Amino acid sequence: MSGSSLRSRLAMQSPVGVFWMSTGSATVLELAAIAKPDAVVIDVQHGVWDRQTIEFAVGVVRHYAPVLIRTAANSPLAIGQALDAGAEGVIVPMIESDREAAAAVSAARFPPHGTRSAGGVRPLSQDFASYYAQADASTVVGVMIETQRAVQNAEAIANTPGVDFVLIGTGDLALSLGTFQTPDSRHERACRSAFEACKVAGIPCAIFTGNVDAAVKRRHEGYALVVVANDIDVLSNGFSSAMKQFSQATS
């Protein structure tokens, strides 16, 4: 699946179920990609990835599924390096205003439409003229709403030209609202507020979900992109379940 088809799918707000990958293992990432998710997300912000493992992982996995990279920061360097690695797009964290969203879009686009610098092993190892001609049209730019201030500015963020989708970061949003340890209705109201802002703007709203049941629930609510599984939980739960089963069978 090419970057352009992923961008088109998002534009049509078709269902997109992703695997979220944090452990820094290209081997685990390849095993996940073989399961044929709609896309995989390499989490550079909180995951155990470095420049070399990202390059290797994208090279292996992009033949199975589109790759999105959650960048370490909203900076030209972080966004440019993610795209230079061959990712179909970026998910930029901690966006709180339309100005910040516009900066992320600019960093992902080549001049004259943005400020992205030309370079990278993968772009330069192919016909760069062809790469340049199609890159701006096919590159996906997602931005994350993760704070109370961002929710207040959701309408402006969602209407920022060049933003392909908004992703609600539910964990940091709960921290920002003060609802992390004592969940209440404020969190859900904030999510719905961001969702409605995206709906009015006509762009997809995505949401981080911790398991497949939550992903199904959120998809039925209208969220276009959801997290079906993440490697940390799949691995830890799998090992825990195996040991528990063994212990019960041999006790």
In words, what does this structure look like?
The protein is of the alpha/beta class and 251 residues long. The chain is globular, with a radius of gyration of 18 Å. It has helices at residues 3-11, 26-34, 51-61, 76-84, 98-108, 121-125, 128-138, 148-152, 154-158, 170-177, 185-201, 212-220, 231-250; strands spanning 16-21, 39-43, 67-70, 89-92, 140-145, 165-168, 205-207, 225-230.
Q: What is the tally of beta strands?
A: 8
Identify the quaternary structure here: single chain
| First-last Cα distance | 49 Å
- Low-pLDDT segments, ≥5 res: none
Tally of alpha and pi helices: 13
Please, what is the average pLDDT? 94
**What share of residues are in beta strands?**
15-25%
Sheet with the most strands: spatial strand order: 1-2-3-4-5-6-7-8
Kindly name the structural category. alpha/beta
Shape, principal axes of CA atoms: globular
Biggest sheet record:
8 strands, parallel, barrel
Rg computed from alpha carbons, rounded to a whole number of angstroms: 18 Å
Helicity, in percent? Answer: 40-55%
In N-to-C order, the SSE pattern is: HEHEHEHEHHHEHHEHHEHEH
Layout of SSEs?
Elements: H1 3-11, E1 16-21, H2 26-34, E2 39-43, H3 51-61, E3 67-70, H4 76-84, E4 89-92, H5 98-108, H6 121-125, H7 128-138, E5 140-145, H8 148-152, H9 154-158, E6 165-168, H10 170-177, H11 185-201, E7 205-207, H12 212-220, E8 225-230, H13 231-250
Parallel strand pairs: 1-2, 1-8, 2-3, 3-4, 4-5, 5-6, 6-7, 7-8
